[in-house]
Amino acid sequence: MKISQKGLYALQAMMTLARRYEQGAIKIRDIAAESDLPEKFLELILLELKNARIVDSVRGARGGYQLRRAPSEIPLSDIIRLVDGPLAPMGDAEQLRGLIAKDADHRALYEVFLAVRDAAAKILEHTTVADLVADKGRKGSGARGGAGSAKKKATGA
């Protein structure tokens, strides 16, 4: 799985919207400035997120973009799949399962790819935009902080 620059920008914009979730619509230029993203590219990303019903746009002087759902209800997997496609290192999970069934000589290789995909998908499906924002200020949390909270959620610990 590879996350594109566009995917990274989408996640960063979603974090900005999550931090300001209770403040209403945020102007594109404010999101771009706060997230340090190119405004024109951000417009395209936000339009894609709007069409997927992840964000809403508000017209007028107080217009801008806002999250359609609470940050805790938006898993990272939704955003990455929308912007970058399947989470599998090659094709999607069904394609990998098909290769496992058809190609006995390379079955072990495809099983590893499927296991990698499943592990990444589990983390991304159980880590929300709210988790990223909550981890922002913690020292040393990095990517592992979100995965740790995802693991706690998944196991109930």
Descriptive terms for the model:
single chain, 157 residues, mainly alpha, Arc Repressor Mutant, subunit A, two-stranded antiparallel ribbon, 61% helix, 5% strand, elongated, disordered C terminus
- What is the class in the CATH system? Mainly Alpha
Radius of gyration over alpha carbons?
18 Å
- The share of residues in helices is 55-70%
Oligomeric state: single chain
Number of domains: 1
The spatial strand order of the largest sheet comes to: 1-2
Largest sheet: 2 strands, antiparallel
Estimate the mean pLDDT confidence.
85
CATH architectural arrangement: Orthogonal Bundle
CATH superfamily: Winged helix-like DNA-binding domain superfamily/Winged helix DNA-binding domain
Q: Count all strands and give the number.
A: 2
